Amino acid sequence: MLTMLARLAKVTVVVALAAAWGAISDERDDHVAWPLCASSALAQESEARGVFHGVGVVTAVDRAKGWLTLDHEAIAGFMGAMEMMYRVDPPQLAAGLRVGDRVAFDIDAARYAVVAIKLLPRVQ
Predict the structure, then answer these.
(1) pLDDT for residue 36
(2) Rounded CA gap, 90 and 79, in Å?
(3) For 59-87, what is the mean pLDDT?
(4) Which of 3, 52, 56, 122 could form a disulfide with 78 if both were Cys (CB 3.0 to 4.6 A apart)?
(5) Which parts of 1-124 fold into alpha helices (H)?
(6) If phi over 0 gives left and psi between -120 and 50 gives alpha, with beta otherwise, what is residue 6?
(7) Total-model pTM
(8) Using an 8 Å Cβ cutoff, are 46 and 63 in contact?
C-alpha cells in the first residue's frame, strides 16, 4: 500500500511539474511539447466574435472546395500574422484570384470564413 501511495505521489509531482512548465505531449508526436497556458493572443483569438479585416497574399486557391490560403499580416483583435487556409463563403469570392495576389479581406471569426475579399495593387 505504501509503495502504491509513493508511486501516486511521484505521478502527481510529475503532472504538477508538467503543468507548471506548460507543456504536454501529443499522441501523434510524443516528442512535441504543446503549451498548456494560452497566451493573450490565443485567448483573444478564442474569444473573438464578429467580422475582422485583414490584408495578405494568396498562396493557394482551391476553387473546387472553396478554400483559400493566405499569408496575412496580424488581424487586429483576432489573430497574429500567419499563413493559414480559410473557407471562402460564398466560394465565388475566390473566382479570379491567383497565387501571389495581394488582397484585403473580411473574416467571420466564429466560422473562420472569408466573407469578403478585394484585390489590391501588387507591391513593387
Answers:
(1) 42
(2) 22
(3) 94
(4) 52
(5) 2-21, 40-47
(6) alpha
(7) 0.61
(8) no
